[in-house]
Amino acid sequence: MTRYDGYTGVEVEVHDDGIVVCTLNRPERLNAFDGQMRQDIHRLLYEVSSDDEARVFVMTGAGRAFCSGADLTAKDRRGWPIRAHEPMFGWCTDLLEMPKPTICALNGLAAGGGLGLSLLFDIRICSSTAKLLPIWMKRAIHPDDLITWTLPRLVGYSRALEWLYEAEEIPLTAALEAGMINHVVEPSEVLPRSLELARRFAAGPTSHYAMTKQAVFKGMQSDSFGAAVLESWGQSKALASDDFKEGLLAFKEKREPKFTGR
């Protein structure tokens, strides 16, 4: 099997500039998770993370939905692949901590686990016609896909609990104001805007993005001294990188830098 081959539950497109685009591909079921899609997403996260040529990861959905959560009627009901003694949703940290910029092109409905999936990305570009539905309580299902960790960090403790308790559609204006989504655009602009941003990131110092992401992620869980230690470590690595030398040279020569991620 060659690079990014063999996917059936998702479509994978690799751009020349290192952008990897994943399209959830069960439009007839509003891209609800079945066993094959779970297997494919799990494998793809590992493949993108370990691919030195992959610089940015983008995910969207086929048709009118991003993802409607678990397909409770699917014939293939396999769960998320897990290693021994790993929690059921341990895979979420593979996306949350992916050492590359990640963008969710949230093209339509995101319900239940689909909403949880979208919040694992660094940035969300959202369609003006999308619906954000934290539906779990209406089905007496426990919130999952790490939304109990991501949502309160994005919007605050009380608002997160209110939205999870109510299990009603979250207005896009409220989601935008709270920081749950980054941008709201017309439906036809969701993927183009996401790819435009991805191209900007792909042209940047991607190894530095990874260190910055790690520092921000760990900083949310540590005190200020721990953050200072991590920033000091990152700065030492950054100053020793080829991209730093290129950035300095480009500044002196009054031109745009050409970063390689090294």
Brief rundown of the structure:
The chain is α/β, with parallel strands linked by helices. Helices cover 41% and strands 15% of the residues. The chain folds into two domains: 10-202, 2-enoyl-CoA Hydratase, Chain A, domain 1 (Alpha-Beta Complex), CATH 3.90.226.10; 206-252, Orthogonal Bundle (Lyase 2-enoyl-coa Hydratase, Chain  A, domain 2), CATH 1.10.12.
How would you sum up this structure, described in words?
It is a single chain. By secondary structure, this protein is α/β, with parallel strands linked by helices. The chain has 2 domains: 10-202, 2-enoyl-CoA Hydratase, Chain A, domain 1, CATH 3.90.226; 206-252, Lyase 2-enoyl-coa Hydratase, Chain  A, domain 2. The protein has helices at 35-50, 92-96, 113-118, 147-155, 157-166, 172-178, 190-202, 206-219, 224-239, 242-252, and strands at residues 10-14, 19-24, 56-61, 65-67, 102-106, 109-111, 123-127, 132-133, 183-185. The chain has a 6-stranded mixed beta sheet, sandwiched between helices. Helix 4 (147-155) packs across helix 5 (157-166) and helix 8 packs antiparallel against helix 9 (224-239). It is globular. The model has no long low-confidence stretch (mean pLDDT 91).
Lay out the secondary structure.
Elements: E1 10-14, E2 19-24, H1 35-50, E3 56-61, E4 65-67, H2 92-96, E5 102-106, E6 109-111, H3 113-118, E7 123-127, E8 132-133, H4 147-155, H5 157-166, H6 172-178, E9 183-185, H7 190-202, H8 206-219, H9 224-239, H10 242-252
Parallel strand pairs: 2-3, 3-5, 4-6, 5-7, 6-8, 7-9
Antiparallel strand pairs: 1-2
